[in-house]
Amino acid sequence: MIDSHCHLADETFVADLEDVVRRARDAGVERALVILDAGNATEAAQAVRVEQLWPAVRFSIGVHPHQAHQFADDPERAAAVVREQFAATPAARAVGEIGLDYHYDYSPRDVQHAVFRAQIRAALALDRPVVIHTREADEDTIAILREEGAGALRGVLHCFTGTAALRDAGLALGFYVSLAGILTFPKAAELRETARGVPLDRLLTETDSPFLAPVPYRGKRNEPAYVAGVVAKLAEMHQTPPADLAQRTAANFHTLFRP
Predict the structure, then answer these.
(1) Using CA atoms, how far apart are residues 64 and 80, in angstroms rounded to an integer?
(2) What b-and-e string marks burial along 39-62, b requiring 16 or more CB atoms within 10 Å of the CB?
(3) What is the pLDDT of residue 259?
(4) Residues 120-153 as b or e (16 or more Cβ within 10 Å = b)
(5) Residues 209/6, Cβ–Cβ less than 8 Å
(6) Distance (Å, rounded) from C-alpha 33 to C-alpha 3?
(7) Cα Rg for the chain, rounded, in angstroms?
(8) How many domains does the chain have?
(9) 243, 190 in Cβ contact below 8 A?
């Protein structure tokens, strides 16, 4: 199994990181993609420790839309920060998470757009995929991906909770769709129905830990070991053995991120 999106460099994991990594490996998680907030020195330091404990991890570096306002005076500086940290992080494999978030609007929307566009251009220059965060901004997210991606951009719609229209737009761009613990929630029937429309060769699994722990851990801190719950639910939905589903999604991860 692979956890294609987690935040192990978050302060939540400082006290027991070694145990978290051990549980993940004991659960059969072979690799994880750890998301880093570009320019965050605390997370960068924690990332060093994560890699020491789990050499198979890889990293994705980006400016989240919540932090886009920090670059309001010069959106291109966000891309520069990403490129600089990429150069200093040999295990970096993607740019993200980046995108748009209109639910909280912590950053002005025009600033979110500019920072998003700058980072897409950085990803293309680096020849790396993007990890996309989109919340209540689907039309603008897809429009920017189309305009800036020029058919050459690779990536994933992370922690997918969107509509069939967003799913289909992402797939048409050649993107992957990643499912997280929400898929296991009792009231997520509509999401499960939408997820069934994702071809197996475009499917990824993630935890987005420490957030969104799957059933039966809902309400607790999430961690990479719990990706097994997402794999199990997807296997049940596709009527295939969990081991086969895990192998398929792991192959997809390797295709996209080239770890």
Answers:
(1) 14
(2) bbeebbebbebbbeebeebbbbbb
(3) 86
(4) bbbbbebebbbbbbbbebbebbbebbeebbeeeb
(5) yes
(6) 6
(7) 17
(8) 1
(9) no
Residue 246: domain span: 2-257
- DSSP string for residues in 10-47: SGGGTTTHHHHHHHHHHTT--EEEEEEETT-HHHHHHH
For residue 151, the model assigns a pLDDT of 87
- Looking at residue 189, which CATH number applies to its domain? 3.20.20.140
Half-sphere exposure at residue 165, Cβ-oriented, CA atoms within 13 angstroms: 6
Q: How would you list the strands of the sheet with 203-205, edge to edge?
A: 2-6, 31-37, 58-62, 92-101, 130-135, 155-157, 176-179, 203-205
Q: Which helix (H) or strand (E) holds 180?
A: none
Q: Is the pLDDT of residue 253 over 90?
A: yes
Minimum mean pLDDT among 17-21, 147-151, 195-199, 219-223: which range? Answer: 147-151
In contact, 112 and 75? CB cutoff 8 Å: no
CB atoms within 10 A of CB 15: 9
The H-or-E segment that residue 128 falls in is none
Element (H, E) at 93: strand 92-101
